[in-house]
């Protein structure tokens, strides 16, 4: 009887260990270009976000706003065909100032994640 209990306990531990990566499998921002909080000398021609997993383009967006809250980038965010963990949006000619990048993406699990950060153009 004790042997069966030990086997069942071990099976439960293994099942929990295997299921935990699936439960935490949401898209997470790994890096950005420009970097969060950066001050750049030249205005970027695009904003690129790199995530820890493939991004679903249809459910993803990037909005770039200036310090007054005006939308600076109006183009559609596109997933990089060579690396589907990267999503980009073209930026217009940006003036000096602080800009906010707001993003919303859906990873392969379908869960939507959001975030934001700022960068400054000299």
TrEMBL record:
Residues 26-121 form the CopC domain. The keyword Signal applies. Belongs to the CopC family. Keywords: Copper, Metal-binding, Periplasm, Signal. InterPro entries: CopC-like, CopC/D, CopC_dom, Cu-Rt/internalin_Ig-like, Ig_E-set. PANTHER family: INNER MEMBRANE PROTEIN YEBZ. Residues 1-19 form the signal peptide. It comes from [Empedobacter] haloabium. This is Copper homeostasis periplasmic binding protein CopC. It is found in: Periplasm. It comes from the Bacteria.
